[in-house]
Specification:
Keywords (chain A): Cytochrome c-type biogenesis, Membrane, Transmembrane, Transmembrane helix
Shape of chain B: globular
Strand content of chain A: 25-35%
InterPro entries (chain A): Cyt_c_bgen_Ccs1/CcsB/ResB, ResB-like_domain
Pfam families (chain A): ResB
Distance between the termini of chain A: 56 Å
Helix content of chain B: 55-70%
Strand order of the largest sheet of chain B: 2-1-4
Oligomer: heterodimer
Number of strands of chain A: 24
Structural class of chain A: alpha+beta
Distance between the termini of chain B: 27 Å
Largest interface: A-B, 71 and 77 residues
Order of helices and strands of chain B: HHHHHHEEEEEHHHHH
Number of helices of chain A: 12
Radius of gyration of chain A: 39 Å
Protein name (chain A): Cytochrome C biogenesis protein
Number of helices of chain B: 11
Shape of chain A: elongated
Number of domains of chain A: 4
Subcellular location (chain A): Membrane
C-alpha cells in the first residue's frame, strides 16, 4: 500500500492521521478538528485502514471497541441470568430427574422453564463459553491492532512538532514570556520539568518534556494478563489437568484416596465444635441455636511403598499427620485435601442378644459391623445367627419387600435366621429399629437389641490443579497492567520558541488533565510562561479548580 | 463502660458528625453569595467535622474489632456500616486531591443512609463460622469494600453533575430518572422510619407456615403482615391478618418489609412535595450551581480509575485466593461472586466507552449511577434475597 508523504518529507504508513515526524494533521478529518484526536497518537491502525478482504473484515470486527463493549455487556447480562435461581451444581440432589423436579417444586413454572432453558447450568453451557471465547479474541485482536502502531509512534517521537500540531492540542499557550529574558526560558523549563521528573529532550529551539510513557503500556499488559488467565482456564478442559474428587471416610477407617494414586488416608477422629454464646438476635431470627466453631478431621496420610499390591493396607508408609480444618487443607505433592462435610453418629455396630422368649435365657450376644456384616455369627455348638438379608438404610416395604434407600447404615434392618439346639432348622425374624420384629411363624427365640456404637464420618474433597500457577501469573500480570494504566499517566509538554520571540506551548496527557495542569501551573510560574488555555473548557468556566479556590 | 459500648458510642458520634458536616457544607454554599470568607469558614468547618466523624467511626471499627476478635465485616450490619465509613474515607481522599466540597453534599448523606440502614439489622457481635475464620476475610472484604467505596464516589460525582446539568424546570426523561433516584433514597428513609416505629411499638406477630420443602416452620413478623407465608396460621392474638397469601418460594416477610418501606417512603415524599412544592432535584439544584462540571466529570472518571484496580484485587483476586484456600475451587458461581464479576465487567465497559467512544459528561454520569446501582444490588438484594454463601443475617 502506498505511503503517505507529509509536507515535511516524512513517509508515513498508509492510514496515518498525524505525521509521525512533525505532527502535521494528514487527513481531512484531522485537519478539520479544533483539537486533534490523539488516540494512538494518530498512527495508522490496521482496522481503520483496511477493509477489503474477508480477513480484514473479521479483524475489524474483533478489533472494534464497540464490539468489545457489546460482548462485555452481553456477558454481563447473561451472567446475571444464572443468579435468579441456584445453579444445578449447587443443588443437593443426586439424579438429573430429581434436579429437574427441584426447580419445579421450589420455584414453580418459572423454575421449570429455567431448568428447561438450560439456565440452571448456564456457566457451563456452550454458548456462554463461546461468549467468553469471543471476548478473548476481541481482547487479543484489539490489543495487537492498536498496541503495535502506538508503540512504534511513541518510540519514534520527534522533539520538534509542527505549529499546526501544537495549536490543535487540548492545552495550548502562545505569547511572550511574562517576565525576564526569553533566551533562558527553555533552560528554565528544562530545569523545572526535570525536577518534576519529566524526561526533557531538546532540539534547537524546541523542547519535549515527557513523563511516564510506560503508562501507555498498561492496557496492553492487563489484556495480556487476561489472556494468560483465560488460557489457564481453557487448559482445565483437558483431562488430567485437574483432579476434583470427594470421599467419605469414617473414623477409624483407612481408605485409598480417590484421584491420588498410591495414597491412603486414615481418619482418626472427626471433631465438631460449637460456640457456647448466648443466642444473638440474628440467630433467633434465623432459628439457629448453635453456631459452629470448628469442623476438623484428624487424619494420617500414608503412601504405599513401591511395588506394593493395590489395596494392601498392611504395609503403608506414614507421610503426614494433620488436622484438616476449613480454611486449612492438607497439602501434599500438589494435592490438597479439604474438609467439606460430615455426618455425625453414624451407626458403626449393633449388638444383639439371642434370647429365649419364654424363659429369657440368653444364648450369647453378637456384634454386627454395620458396614461390613458377617454372613453368620457362631455363638456356640449348634447355636448361630445367620444374616439372610441386610438393609442398611431401611425405607419401608414395597410390594412386601423391604427396601434400602442407600448403602449408609442410617436405619439398619436385618432378616435373621436363628439356629438353636431347640430349633436346628432355624427361625426367621425381620428386625428393624423402633418396630416389633416380624416373624415367620411363632418363634421361640428372638434377637434382643443391646446397644449400638456410633462414629462420625468426614466428607473430604481432593483437589489438584496444575493450571493454578498459570492463573496466578495471569492475575499478577493483569493487576500490574491495571495499576500501570490507572495510577500513572503519560504526560507530554511541547515547547517551541518561534522566530518572533514568542513561545508556543502544547501539552497532552492520556488521562488526568487535572494532574497535568498542576504540573503546568508550576512550570508556568517558574519559567514565566504565557498562560495556557484548555480548548475544551467552555469560556464561562475557565476556573480551573474546585469551588474552594477563589 | 465496656469496649463494645465505647464502640457503639463512637459510631453514634460519627453518625451525627456526618449530619453536621452535611449541614455545614450546604450552609457554606448557600451563604456564598454575600460574605465569601464566612462561607469559606463554614465549608472548612464542614470538612473538619467530616474528618472528625471519620476518625470516630474508625475508632468504632477498631474497638469493635478488638472486642470481637475479628474484623467487624462479617454480617450485614457490620459490612454496611464499614461501607459507609469507606465511602466517607473515599470522599475525603478525593476532596484532598480535588478540593471539591460539594461532593460531600452527596457523599455524606449517602453514608448516613448506609449507617441508618445498617442499624436496622441485628447489631450484636456474632462469632465466626469455620469458613469465615481466615485472615482472608479481613483482606477480601475490606479491600473489596474500599474499592466499591471509591467506585461509588464516581456515582456521587455523577449525581452532582446531573443535578447541575439536568434542568429541573424542564420536563425530560433525565429529570424523571434523576428524581426517581432521589425518591429511592427517600424510600430507604421510609424503611428506617417504619422499622424504628414498629420496633418501638414492640410489634410482633407469630406465624406458622409450610416451607418449600413441605415442612412446617415458624416465623415472626416485626411489622403488620401484608403478605402471608405459604399456608400461614397466625399464632398471636390481636394483630393484623395478612392481606394476601404467597406461594412458598417467595419470602412474604421480606416482601412485607419492602412494601412497608415503599409505603412510608411514598408518604414522606408526597408530604415533602406537598410542603415544599418542588421536586427534590429542583431543591438541590442551587446547591450545585457553582460546581465546575468538567472537573466533576473528571473526578468521576478518576475515581473509577483509582477504585477499579482496588475492587479487582479485593472482590475478585483475594476472593479467588480465599475460595481456593477454603473450598479448593477459586470460583463457584455463587450469586455474590457472579455479581462481583458483573460489577467488574460493568466498570470495564465504562472505561472502554470513556476511552474509545468518548462517553464523557452526562453519559458517563449516568453510567456511574448504574454502576453504583449494581453495587447496591449486590449488597442488598443478593445478600437478602438470593441465598448463597454470602447471605448474612
Amino acid at each position: 500500500m502506498e505511503k503517505v508523504k507529509c509536507v515535511c518529507g516524512h513517509e508515513n504508513p498508509f492510514g496515518t492521521k498525524i505525521c509521525g515526524k512533525c505532527g502535521r494533521p494528514l487527513t481531512e478529518e484531522a485537519k478539520a478538528q479544533k483539537v486533534l484526536d490523539m488516540k494512538y497518537d494518530g498512527s495508522a491502525i490496521r482496522s481503520k485502514t483496511y477493509n477489503k478482504s474477508i480477513i480484514d473484515k473479521i479483524w475489524n470486527f474483533f478489533s472494534s471497541v464497540k464490539v468489545g463493549v457489546s460482548l462485555i455487556v452481553i456477558t454481563l447480562i447473561a451472567s446475571s441470568f444464572g443468579t435468579f435461581f441456584p445453579q444445578k451444581f449447587n443443588i443437593q440432589a443426586a439424579t438429573e430427574a430429581e434436579k429437574a423436579l427441584y426447580y419445579e417444586q421450589n420455584y414453580g413454572t418459572l423454575g421449570k422453564l429455567y431448568y428447561e432453558l438450560g439456565l440452571s447450568d448456564l456457566y457451563n453451557s456452550w454458548w456462554y463459553q463461546i461468549l467468553v471465547g469471543l471476548l478473548a479474541i476481541s481482547i487479543i485482536v484489539a490489543s495487537l491492532d492498536r498496541g503495535i502502531p502506538l508503540y512504534k509512534s511513541l518510540k519514534n517521537q520527534r522533539v520538534k512538532r509542527h505549529e499546526s500540531f501544537m495549536k490543535k492540542q487540548r492545552i495550548v499557550a502562545h505569547g511572550p514570556v511574562t517576565e525576564g529574558d526569553a533566551s533562558k526560558t527553555l533552560d528554565l523549563i528544562a530545569e523545572k520539568m526535570s525536577k518534576l521528573r519529566y524526561k526533557v529532550r531538546r532540539d534547537g529551539n524546541a523542547l519535549l518534556a515527557e513523563k511516564n510513557r510506560f503508562a501507555r503500556s498498561g492496557p496492553y499488559i492487563n489484556h495480556l494478563g487476561l489472556i494468560i488467565f483465560l488460557f489457564g482456564l481453557m487448559l482445565r478442559f483437558i483431562p488430567g489437568f485437574h483432579v476434583d474428587e470427594a470421599m467419605w471416610i469414617r473414623e477409624g477407617e483407612i481408605r485409598a484416596i480417590p484421584g491420588m494414586d498410591g495414597y491412603y488416608l486414615e481418619n482418626e477422629k472427626f471433631i465438631l465444635e460449637t460456640y457456647d454464646n448466648e443466642p444473638t438476635r440474628a440467630q433467633i431470627e434465623q432459628g439457629v441455636s448453635k453456631i459452629a466453631k470448628n469442623y476438623q478431621s484428624d487424619v494420617k496420610l500414608y503412601k504405599q511403598p513401591e511395588g506394593a499390591v493395590l489395596g494392601d493396607t498392611e504395609n503403608l508408609d506414614l507421610v503426614k499427620e494433620y488436622s484438616i480444618r476449613v480454611n486449612h487443607p492438607l497439602k501434599y505433592d500438589g494435592y490438597s485435601i479439604y474438609q467439606m462435610d460430615y455426618r455425625l453418629n453414624e451407626f458403626k455396630s449393633m449388638t444383639f442378644g439371642l434370647t429365649n422368649k419364654q424363659s429369657g435365657e440368653s444364648l450369647g450376644t453378637l456384634t454386627i459391623d454395620l458396614t461390613n456384616p458377617e454372613k453368620e455369627y457362631v455363638l456356640g455348638e449348634n447355636t448361630k445367627v445367620e444374616i439372610l438379608n441386610y438393609y442398611p438404610d431401611f425405607s419401608g416395604l414395597k410390594d412386601g419387600i423391604p427396601q434400602t434407600a442407600s448403602q449408609y447404615p442410617n436405619n439398619p434392618a436385618f432378616v435373621f435366621k436363628m439356629i438353636t439346639p431347640d430349633k436346628p432348622e432355624g427361625e426367621i425374624s425381620f428386625v428393624s429399629i423402633g418396630a416389633a420384629p416380624v416373624e415367620a411363624g411363632d418363634n421361640e427365640y428372638k434377637m434382643t437389641f443391646k446397644n449400638v456404637e456410633t462414629r462420625n464420618v468426614s466428607g473430604l474433597a481432593i483437589k489438584k490443579d496444575v493450571t493454578i500457577p498459570i492463573l496466578i501469573v495471569g492475575g499478577i500480570v493483569f493487576l500490574i497492567g491495571l495499576a500501570i494504566g490507572s495510577y500513572w499517566n503519560h504526560r507530554r509538554l511541547w515547547v517551541q520558541q518561534l522566530e518572533d520571540g514568542t513561545l508556543l506551548l502544547a501539552a497532552h496527557t492520556n488521562k488526568n488533565w487535572f494532574g497535568l495542569k498542576k504540573d503546568l501551573n508550576v512550570v508556568t510560574e517558574y519559567a514565566h510562561l504565557p498562560q495556557y488555555i484548555d480548548q475544551l473548557e467552555e469560556n464561562d468556566e475557565t476556573k480551573r479548580e474546585g469551588d474552594d479556590v477563589e | 463502660m465496656s469496649l463494645i459500648d465505647i464502640s457503639s458510642n463512637l459510631l453514634l458520634i460519627a453518625f451525627f458528625a456526618y449530619i453536621l458536616g452535611t449541614v455545614l457544607i450546604a450552609g457554606s454554599i448557600k451563604r456564598n453569595d454575600g460574605a465569601a470568607s464566612r462561607a469559606e469558614k463554614w465549608g472548612k468547618a464542614g470538612i473538619v467535622v467530616a474528618v472528625v466523624g471519620f476518625i470516630a467511626q474508625l475508632g468504632y471499627f477498631i474497638t469493635r474489632w478488638i472486642y470481637a476478635g475479628h474484623a467487624p465485616v462479617s454480617n450485614m450490619f457490620e459490612f454496611t456500616t464499614a461501607f459507609g465509613m469507606f465511602l466517607v474515607g473515599a470522599f475525603l481522599l478525593i476532596y484532598f486531591i480535588y478540593r471539591v466540597k460539594t461532593l460531600g453534599l452527596v457523599a455524606l448523606p449517602i453514608a448516613i443512609l448506609f449507617i441508618s440502614y445498617a442499624t436496622m439489622f441485628p447489631t450484636d457481635v456474632t462469632p465466626l463460622v469455620p469458613s469465615l475464620q481466615s485472615h482472608w476475610l479481613t483482606l477480601h472484604v475490606v479491600t473489596a469494600a474500599i474499592g466499591q467505596a471509591i467506585l461509588a464516589i464516581s456515582a456521587v460525582a455523577g449525581l452532582v453533575y446531573l443535578l447541575k446539568e439536568v434542568d429541573p424546570k424542564q420536563k425530560s426523561k433525565e429529570r424523571f430518572w434523576l428524581e426517581a433516584i432521589l425518591y429511592l433514597c427517600v424510600v430507604i428513609i421510609g424503611f428506617v422510619v417504619v422499622t424504628l416505629t414498629f420496633r418501638t411499638m414492640g410489634y410482633e406477630a407469630e406465624f406458622t407456615y409450610v416451607d418449600k420443602n413441605g415442612m412446617e416452620a415458624e416465623i415472626v413478623y416485626n411489622m403488620p403482615a401484608l403478605f402471608g407465608m405459604n399456608e400461614y396460621e397466625l399464632k398471636t392474638d390481636g394483630v393484623m391478618e395478612p392481606l394476601v397469601e404467597l406461594p412458598p418460594y417467595i419470602n412474604a416477610k421480606k416482601l412485607t418489609t419492602v412494601v412497608w418501606s415503599f409505603i412510608a417512603g411514598t408518604i414522606l415524599y408526597l408530604l415533602y412535595r406537598f410542603i415544599v412544592r418542588k421536586r427534590i432535584c429542583e431543591l438541590l439544584n442551587p446547591l450545585v450551581k457553582k460546581v465546575n462540571t468538567n472537573l466533576v466529570d473528571e473526578i468521576g472518571y478518576r475515581s473509577v480509575l483509582i477504585g477499579f484496580p482496588v475492587f479487582t484485587l479485593g472482590a475478585l483476586v483475594f476472593a479467588m485466593i480465599w475460595a481456593q484456600e477454603a473450598w479448593g475451587r477459586f470460583w463457584g458461581w455463587d450469586p455474590k461472586e457472579v455479581w462481583a464479576l458483573i460489577t467488574w465487567l460493568f466498570y470495564a465497559a465504562y472505561l472502554h466507552l470513556r476511552l474509545s467512544k468518548g462517553w464523557e459528561g452526562r453519559k458517563s454520569a449516568w453510567l456511574a449511577l448504574i454502576g453504583f446501582a449494581i453495587i447496591i444490588f449486590n449488597l442488598v438484594f443478593v445478600n437478602l434475597v438470593i441465598a448463597g454463601l454470602h447471605s448474612y443475617a
